Prior knowledge:
Keywords: Membrane, Transmembrane, Transmembrane helix. The chain crosses the membrane at residues 44-64, 124-145, 151-169, 181-203, 257-279. The chain is mainly alpha-helical. It has one domain. It is 76% helix and 0% strand. It has 11 helices and no strands. The model is unreliable at 8-25 and 232-236 (pLDDT under 50).
Amino acid sequence: MHRTLRRNLHWVGSALALAGVGFVAQRLSHYAAAADFSRFSATSWLFVSGSCLAYALAGLMLAYGWRNLLSHLGTTISPKAAVGIYGVAQLAKYVPGNVLHLAGRQALGIAAGIPGWTLAKSAVWELALIATAAAGFGLLTLPLLDPACSMALSLGAFAALIGLAAALAHHLIDPRVARAFAWYTGFLGVSGLLFAALLTIVADTAMDGSVPWLPVCGAYVLAWLSGLVTPGAPAGIGVRELTLLFLLKGLVSEADLTLTVLLARIVTVVGDLFFYVLARFTVARPM
């Protein structure tokens, strides 16, 4: 590919990412003004800061999963290049439209020498695998929907379904697709458990008692899926919150749940910003 064209494509991808930075700043300002976090202790805020870093590192799982898909489709890139391209493009998901991070990844990928058709197919594979994994997390919410269903039963059903899906991908498609599925499942699990931990902090602060982590994790991932498949909602903003309020209504007070949702949004936005900064130090420059 011509050197000038590669450079231009690189700038297109970077411009979309920078637009995402602007929307991130706007969302953080909105969240900070929407809730009162004064009741949290210094220890709680330290945990929130750690959660932002943990979410940023979980973003590496997405990049590694994408790298496996590219390999399956015939293109091998280094882990450094995968993290650089994926992380820089990721912030564009906050730009209204909910698909511009894919456009940014397409531009940056082509600039790095990856065939455009391979990038397009990898995006379809990614959406299919991550949606499949997220749907499996719905089994963890069964105790919330039916108190007669035990936690052990829902966890066993979840593990069996995810294991079966990974095994089928490994034997019927490609081991690299199975590895990508595992990375995406890991990312979703970390995201859901971080939300459950934040809800625990808010509930404990309010003296509302304990929180069932696994069902809450499942509810968060289902809400994440609802935002993913809703067109036009940047990063699922609004859709995920409404889904969580529906699934977890009655588990804790609505005020505490709303506060946790806002806190989780701050964690994911700051985490994505940290991931972007990490990616900027690793992104492969066009040749």
